[in-house]
Design brief:
single chain, alpha+beta, Jelly Rolls, seven-stranded antiparallel beta sheet, four-stranded antiparallel beta sheet, binds fe (ii) ion
């Protein structure tokens, strides 16, 4: 597991406490940018671990969505899309599954489902790969921390 249980619990609680400040971005879907709302310690820890693990020292943060917490409840999904690149660099995201729904909420890249458990990290080359997420089912939300870089 990439994230510890303590980190997952801290970020999940943070999301519940702050979700009223999140921005809606579709049916049953909202997100909060950490730099706007203030990073919980565990999110900073995960960001640092990602930088170390993937060798991202000195890389630029993706400026539009930066690092955010995504929150999707029952009936919500993410449609197929790719994300904007910038300055000849590729919009790349490192995502951590904080709360995995009972069913659904599965990330898909280029048509292939990615098997992700709570606490796992996965990389999405969002500027070049078509990606989406299947519909969330059940009353447990899908909470994801997404850290953006230009690579
Ligand atoms: Fe995306």
């Amino acid at each position: 597991m990439f994230a510890s249980t303590e980190q997952l619990n801290q970020i999940a609680s943070w999301a519940e406490e702050h979700k009223h400040l999140f921005k809606p971005n579709g049916k049953s879907r909202q997100y909060g940018i950490f730099s706007v709302l203030g990073y919980p310690t565990a999110a900073l820890e995960l960001r640092n671990k990602i930088i170390e693990t993937y060798g991202l020292q000195g890389k630029k943060q993706e400026p539009m969505f930066q690092d955010y917490c995504g929150y999707i409840t029952e009936g919500g999904a993410i449609h197929e899309h790719s994300d904007p690149n910038q300055d000849g660099l590729i919009h790349t995201r490192f995502n951590v599954m904080i709360s995995k729904p009972v069913a659904g909420g599965v990330p898909v890249q280029n048509g292939k489902e990615i098997s992700v458990e709570e606490g796992d990290v996965w990389r999405c080359d969002a500027g070049v790969v078509k990606h989406w997420c299947t519909e969330v089912e059940g009353n447990k939300p899908r909470i994801v921390c997404s850290f953006g870089f230009l690579l």
